[in-house]
Design a protein that fits this description.
With 297 residues, the protein is mainly alpha-helical. The protein is 79% helix and 0% strand. The chain has one domain. The model has no long low-confidence stretch (mean pLDDT 90). One of its GO terms (cellular component) is membrane.
């Protein structure tokens, strides 16, 4: 009986990991002829529309617990932080490979630990967690490459740009927990996506002139996959896992997403990965494990 119950959870974990790893693949394809701002504006609009449809099907009230200006302000701030993180993905992948970008997602648990300990005070400082964060960062250094770090070239600056986006995402997650306690996660996510779409869409209209008939079919399909599958369906499966299997189990995707992202870049885009980068990935994953050691939250 236990195995029959566990099976769907494992399948769900693998599914959400594949969908979120596919983000880097879809972005790389879309970036070929669509400007980065437009890529992520389209992602936000498509995924917000998808979530509104889900809310309608589930008959969840959108404004029942989110009418106050305080809640709307928090949704807007968090949504714009997510929008910035998304933009850094698309902008960095104009330089980085999808595999390289997938490597860098390993910084997200480190940024969450840093913010939880030193800013939000939601985590207890432990030396073993600090050691884990340091190990993870050293692994990321291997992945970026010593020559890129020393040269200070485009790959380094694109990596740092994406890392700044991951920090912004961690801040957004922390603020959502603090300011939006009790809000249905579907409603919370929909509002975050709405404000992300509003911010990114406005910037895309100003700077990108996003409406073009010259976009390739592959790029447009990648936008659809990015908005509907990697974002919309990915969120649904993740929330289902949190509800049924618990947040600790659902968050194991943090170990799978970078590995699957690298594999997908190699398999579907023909990208190359060095043995030093593979070593760096496993060093970073080991560091993540140590940074989460004995962390009740």
């Amino acid at each position: 009986m236990a195995n029959s119950v566990r099976g769907p959870y494992v399948a769900g974990l693998l599914a959400v990991s594949v969908l979120w790893a596919g983000t880097f693949l879809f972005v790389k394809v879309a970036d070929r002829d669509i400007p980065p701002l437009t890529v992520m504006a389209a992602r936000a609009v498509i995924s917000c529309s998808f979530m509104l449809l889900v809310l309608a099907v589930l008959r969840k009230p959108l404004l029942q617990d989110a009418r106050s200006l305080r809640h709307q302000a928090s949704f807007a701030i968090c949504g714009l932080l997510v929008a910035y993180m998304w933009f850094t993905i698309a902008r960095s992948e104009t330089v980085l490979s999808a595999s390289h970008a997938a490597f860098l997602i390993t910084f997200l648990p480190v940024s969450s630990w840093l913010i939880g300990v030193f800013l939000a005070h939601t985590r207890v400082f432990r030396w073993i967690n600090l050691l884990g964060a340091a190990v993870a960062v050293s692994g990321i250094g291997f992945m970026v490459g010593l020559d890129n770090i020393l040269r200070g070239g485009n790959e380094l600056w694109s990596s740092l740009l994406y890392i700044s986006g991951l920090l912004a995402f961690s801040v957004s997650a922390t603020l959502n927990k603090r300011w939006c306690t009790g809000i249905d996660p579907f409603v919370l996510t929909t509002f975050n996506l709405f404000y992300a779409a509003l911010g990114l869409g406005t910037l895309a209209l100003i700077f990108d002139a996003p409406f073009s008939a010259s976009y390739h079919q592959d790029s447009l399909l990648a936008l659809f996959g990015l908005g509907v599958f990697s974002t919309g369906v990915g969120y649904l499966i993740f929330y289902w896992l949190v509800l049924r299997a618990g947040a600790e189990f659902a968050c194991l995707n943090g170990y799978l997403v970078p590995v699957l992202g690298v594999l997908m870049g190699v398999m579907f885009l023909g990208e190359s990965v060095t043995s030093l980068q593979i070593l760096g990935l496993f060093v970073a994953l080991s560091g993540i494990y140590l940074s989460e050691w004995d962390n009740a939250s």
